[in-house]
UniProtKB/TrEMBL annotation:
Pathway: Bacterial outer membrane biogenesis; LPS core biosynthesis. Belongs to the glycosyltransferase group 1 family. GO terms for biological process: lipid A biosynthetic process; lipopolysaccharide core region biosynthetic process. It is found in: Cell membrane. It comes from the Bacteria. The keyword Transport does not apply. It is an enzyme of class 2 (transferase). Gene3D superfamilies: 3-Deoxy-D-manno-octulosonic-acid transferase, N-terminal domain, Glycogen Phosphorylase B. One of its GO terms (cellular component) is plasma membrane. This is 3-deoxy-D-manno-octulosonic acid transferase. Keywords: Cell membrane, Glycosyltransferase, Lipopolysaccharide biosynthesis, Membrane, Transferase. It comes from Roseivivax jejudonensis. The keyword Nucleotidyltransferase does not apply.
Length: 397
């Protein structure tokens, strides 16, 4: 490793302090070892998608997650030599992926000094920063220079990078790394059978419905069916308790039911396909061009991940109670892929309007574009992770 720049040496001297007790850490685990740090919760969610995609290509990879995860595997050590050494001695990562604008120069420099390849996902926005008093020399440029590759969301992020010690070969404009999800699977034979049974009828889906939402969904369907008498609703409850309440609600309606979990298939007279749970929901996303995502009209649930619908080309309706996934819904609404409803009146009206093939298709395409751009950014990072890990394994013999 090259000699430390004066800015980093000054930084280390200023950050030196009393050593902290070494925490009790879990066993390291065997396999190619990837350390992933997220500075913000949104970055952690995006990196979670990346790790899921990576696991499908390299299942034996072991990960260490630090930072803003819901349940991180370890905390970052203080910027002090002893604690950093204990952290790296224990985990011995084969590769580090650092996301966020907050850099830890001493930690990253020690990792680079141990020949641990470093990758950086830059989320864009404000300039990079590092801890330490303001009078210290700027440690950001030499710290950024430690990274093998810096993945950038756009040209603006590239322009605000400090150019000192940065080579263009290390910079890749890959697009923004965003929270998405992998497409849900389904049984292909069952899908073909269901397609034949539906026989070109307009279909909409109410997915992950909570018990108290079943009445609203069924009433919305009744109203929408007045304008489209062949309209078919697939109602998929979230839990067995929700399924029991949905079954009671549907049974007291005058709509003709098909109970999917009992092996029944819809026929020309069926108005509602009632499912027992979300086991086959990947199939219904493929059949329905439009979906209402439950847990969003009833308070207290926080909504449903909308990317599972967007990943399969489904236009999205949702209620106002989506606090757990607010960022994802905001992204999709801004792109024109999702629309909010507030009661059975607005839900039935939206279903009637958006089942027009061109309108549903435009929304679905907008959602798919969001998912595919996020997937392309993830794949760019994954490709470099695999390249570096394979090179490290070959060098180790």
């Amino acid at each position: 490793m090259s000699r430390r720049p004066i800015s980093l040496s000054t930084y280390l001297a200023a950050m030196r302090g009393a050593g902290a007790p070494v925490p009790v850490r879990a066993p390291r685990g065997d396999g190619p070892f990837l350390w992933v740090h997220a500075s913000e919760a949104a970055e952690a969610r995006a990196l979670g998608t990346l790790l899921a995609r990576l696991a499908t290509q390299w299942p034996e990879i072991v990960t260490l997650r630090t930072g803003a995860w819901d349940t991180p595997d370890d905390a970052l050590p203080p910027e002090a030599v002893g604690e950093i050494a204990a952290f790296l001695d224990h985990w011995r990562p084969d590769l580090a992926l650092w996301s966020g604008l907050r850099l830890h120069p001493a930690l990253l420099w020690e990792a680079a000094d141990r020949d641990i390849p470093l990758l950086h996902v830059d989320p864009g926005g404000d300039p990079h920063n590092a801890p330490g008093p303001r009078w210290l020399p700027d440690t950001v440029p030499p710290t950024l220079a430690l990274f093998d590759t810096i993945f950038l969301p756009d040209a603006a992020a590239e322009r605000r990078l400090p150019r000192v010690s940065l080579g263009q070969a290390r910079i890749r404009r890959s697009g923004a790394l965003t929270e998405t999800t992998l497409p849900l699977d389904c049984n292909d034979d069952l899908l073909e059978e269901a397609l034949a049974a539906v026989a070109g009828r307009p279909v909409w889906l109410a997915a992950h419905v909570r018990g108290s939402e079943a009445r609203l969904v069924i009433e919305a369907h009744r109203r929408a069916a007045r304008l489209s008498h062949r309209l078919l609703l697939a109602l998929v409850p979230e839990t067995p308790e929700d399924a029991a309440e949905a079954d009671r609600t549907a049974a007291t309606s005058d709509l003709r039911l098909c109970r999917w979990d009992e092996g029944e298939m819809p026929d020309d007279t069926t108005q509602v396909v009632l499912c027992g749970g979300p086991e086959d929901i990947g199939l219904w996303y493929r059949l329905a061009p439009l979906a209402f995502l439950g847990g969003s009209l009833a308070p207290g649930h926080g909504g449903t991940d909308p990317f599972e619908a967007a990943a399969l080309g489904t236009a999205i309706l949702y209620g106002p109670n989506v606090g757990r996934h607010l960022g994802a819904y905001s992204t999709l609404v801004e792109a024109g892929a999702a629309r909010i409803v507030r009661d059975e009146d607005s839900l039935s009206g939206a279903v009637s309007q958006l089942l027009a093939p061109d309108r549903a298709a435009a929304m679905a395409h907008a959602g798919w574009d969001i998912v595919s751009r996020g997937a392309a950014a993830s794949d760019a990072v994954i490709d470099r992770i695999i390249e570096l890990l394979e090179a490290r394994r070959e060098a180790a013999g």
